Amino acid sequence: MKVIAVIPAYFEGSRIAHVIHEVKPFVDEVVVVDDGSTDITTKTAKEAGAIVFRHAVNRGQGAALRTGTEAALRLGADCIIHLDADGQHDSAAIPLFLKEIEAGSEVVFGSRFLGAEAIGMPKHRRYVLALAKTFNRFALGISSQVTDPQSGYRAMTAQAARTIDFRQDRMAHCSEILRLVTRSSLRWKEIPTTVRYTEDTLAKGQKATDAFVIVWQLILGAFQR
Amino acid sequence: MIIQFLLTLIALAGFALVWRRASQGVLSRIESISWSLLWIAGTIIVWQPEVASRLARLVGVGRGVDVITYLVLAFVCILLFQAFLAIDRLERKLTDLVRADALRDLAPKE
Known about the structure:
The complex is a heterodimer.
Chain A: E1 3-9, H1 16-23, E2 29-34, H2 41-47, E3 51-54, H3 61-74, E4 79-82, H4 94-102, E5 107-111, H5 123-139, E6 154-157, H6 158-163, H7 173-182, E7 188-192, H8 199-204, H9 210-222
Parallel strand pairs in A: 1-2, 1-4, 2-3, 5-7
Antiparallel strand pairs in A: 4-6, 5-6
Chain B: H1 2-23, H2 29-47, H3 49-59, H4 64-102
């Protein structure tokens, strides 16, 4: 089984090499999509051994993930892993994702709420995620079995990746992917994963107010098909 | 009286512009008819304000001018939302172009 990790990156010149080195032992290839950064992200990622694709202009994390997913499919991936470029996701969990894929799951989501402790997660983030879970359930019809409404750490088979037609370019892609997967006939599962929050990642990561932006993006997206 | 003529002239200009754009293929038939009905309704209310008052009483708003204000507000909100949707469509097309450019050296897999 050829496993390719897809990492969207935007101004991650200082962190991307470390993430690539951590992920590489668990996968066959690492695809990095530089989402229009003007720093050394592309150069650093190439030097660290990743296959790099570059967006000429910034299009958002969802758009970069989709570009990376399409690239992985063209490179012959049997299994695709999505993870963040800031080092929040614990790469040691990749074998656990692969084990579930080999056991028959077509999509596996990492969850911060299944027992594995999220390190350094601010309390207000928990409340926002609880609200997001309620919103996902009632407004988007996402199964109540989903414990993490905004998980960016996931694995999927190539066939599932071809089926999941996510079109949200920016932050709303997590909810969109969850909706598409849980409302389809794809076999999916959540597994506990550890997420490490640091001052650095929190400064660049999502803010509580981004929840409103995500809702607005999902409303616009609902009228686009 | 002057304001009524002025508003009628504006409505006529709007009406003419709608059908000019329709003949140029910019507006669809349904859009053209909808816009025309809007301009005609506006002209009727300018000359027969009691129509708006009757409508206001019918929906329980109170004054005719209030019901017009609410309708205009709803109309502006719809237009604004349409504009947001158009921007979102353009953004998605831009993403498709950026993606095609990023993957240009990677042949599509059968």
